[in-house]
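Feature request disguised as a bug report, sorry. It would help if multi-protein outputs had a clear separator. Right now it looks like this:
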Amino acid sequence: MSDNSTATRKIPADFWFDPLCPWAWMTSRWMLEVEKVRDVEVRWHVMSLAVLNEDRLDELPEEYRDLLENKAWGPVRVVIAAQQKHGDDIVGPLYTALGTRFHNQGEGPTREAIEGALQDVGLPAELAQYADSDAYDTELRASHKEGIDKVGQDVGTPVIAVPGANGEQIAFFGPVVTPAPKGEEAAKLWDGTLLVASIPGFYEIKRTRTAGPDFT
């Protein structure tokens, strides 16, 4: 009997992102490289910086608070609406289209950029109307909560969850890296991620960032 289970043997990596975040964008491009060099399957999920910070807006700088209140809701709402109407498989491609326009092309999270991204992946432009709608906020919050419940509240985006020593999912914030590693460097960072996930009690490695996101 032939073996058709090859895909199921790929290592799952669950990835939670907010399209607005340039650092999540960097990490997501690394994960696409990892898929090329390791037997890994990325499963894409939405989290929301607006939801994450909604109870602490008064503590945030005015500029960041304005970003969260006026620009952060739209993109994640559109991605969730697309997922609900067109299935899980559209989430990754739509994120790539949004991130390319927001970050690489410098368009930012505008309505025009969202509509262009929808067109890029063959979705109806009408989905952009959900940027201003709370119709799928329950599903958005559920997706966000799934990731946060795995990693804890004291994080940002992205969140990744990978198999630990016994196969259970271990979730981390990050890795935060710029530019996105390619080829063997991407593979080494992935191997290291699995390694630290296999160590019981490992929580964090961190240093001060001295460079901004490099989208090249």
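(second protein starts here, but nothing in the output says so)
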Amino acid sequence: MKVVVVGGTGLIGSQVVARLGEHGHEAVPASPNTGVNTMTGEGLAEVLRGASVVVDVSNSPSFADDAVKEFFRVSTSNLLKAEAEAGVGHHVALSVVGTDRLQGSGYFQAKQAQEDMIKDSGIPYSIVHATQFFEFAKSLADSATEGDTVTVAPIKIQPIFSGDVAAAVGRTAVGAPVNGTVEVAGPDVFRLEDFIRKGLAVRDDTRTVVTDPNGLYWGAALQESDLLPGADARIAETHFDEWAAGQR
């Protein structure tokens, strides 16, 4: 089948394209780099012609509240409209475990709005909720750094390898629409501070990581288990230490 992957040249999207191609599908990356711009609509009608499935793993170039909300509102609206006109039968979107619990953050407000638009579109859909990626430990640290100290909330996290996320998205894309949400997470639960320490150690980053009960996660105050998946989540195989060993 023809599967158009919006954001198909990024970390997750490029892996989704490769995996689908390996299984004999026509996987087409769609991004500004390939002449497709979901913010303006440029190239959408052409790339969606003959597509059975659209996978949206795109992300906002800016995490500022107003910018990210505008990105997901406009991009998702344009994409869903073009899909309806092209007769696409399955819309798959990548989102985040705990999005509905992270509404103190402008970014997650935007992701929730995106999910709501998809659910209301009338197009059969599947939403894949993933936990934080191994690769983004540094980004988390950077968002919470002052001087040489990283201050995080005393919460738990169950991070996942990006390749396992791509595999889950690919499986979902070639399956029947679930008209709901599936969750995917890594096999190990960490305290957030321990995950960030491990992630920084992979890069030989010597910043100090401390906890603060008032610490935020991308601007949101969290309960201890807000980032953890539910009991029905699909658990991926790659352990953090296995991944980290391959980065050295």
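Even a blank line would do. Unrelated, but nice: The mean pLDDT is 96.
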